């Protein structure tokens, strides 16, 4: 039920939301990041405050809470699809990272409950 959280959190590889200057994120290849454990780990450590951040990582961290609250309402369809891809990868292949991200950004399950319908769609 917490898959939307990671979607928004890992929009680090995508554009966070439509109103944010997403120029830095437009050049990031999601498939490349997901296929490269070292690169993925670096992004996740950044947003978990466990490692150094690239400029993209710093920008992402500064928008996570707002993006969670708005549910990516301003994201394009392409961005939403990318988010689903990231979620699926983390849930299936990187459960330890998934757990840490949920503990940090949704410890009470507020956002996962709020977006239950979206989460069910992602599970299909």
Report on this structure.
This protein has 124 residues and is mainly α. It has a single domain (3-123), classed as Antennal chemosensory protein a6. The chain is built from nine helices and no strands. Helix 1 (3-9) packs antiparallel against helix 5 (55-70) and helix 1 (3-9) packs across helix 6. The two termini are 13 Å apart. The relative contact order is 0.24.
Average the pLDDT over all residues and give the rounded result: 73
How many DSSP E strands? 0
Which second-level CATH architecture applies? Orthogonal Bundle
Predict the CATH topology.
Antennal chemosensory protein a6
Helix content class: 55-70%
Identify the CATH class: Mainly Alpha
Structural class by helix and strand composition: mainly alpha
Straight-line N-to-C gap: 13 Å
Tell me the CATH superfamily: Insect odorant-binding protein A10/Ejaculatory bulb-specific protein 3
Q: Which stretches are poorly predicted, pLDDT < 50 over at least 5 residues? A: 12-21
């Amino acid at each position: 039920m917490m898959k939307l959280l990671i979607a928004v959190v890992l929009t680090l590889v995508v554009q966070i939301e439509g109103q944010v200057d997403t120029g830095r994120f437009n050049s990031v290849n999601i498939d490349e990041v997901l296929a490269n454990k070292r690169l993925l780990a670096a992004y996740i450590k950044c947003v978990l405050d466990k490692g150094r951040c690239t400029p993209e990582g710093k920008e992402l961290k500064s928008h996570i809470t707002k993006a969670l609250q708005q549910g990516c309402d301003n994201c394009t369809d392409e961005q939403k699809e990318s988010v689903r891809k990231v979620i699926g990868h983390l849930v299936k292949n990187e459960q330890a990272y998934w757990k840490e991200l949920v503990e940090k950004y949704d410890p009470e399950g507020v956002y996962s409950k709020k977006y239950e319908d979206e989460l069910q769609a992602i599970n299909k």
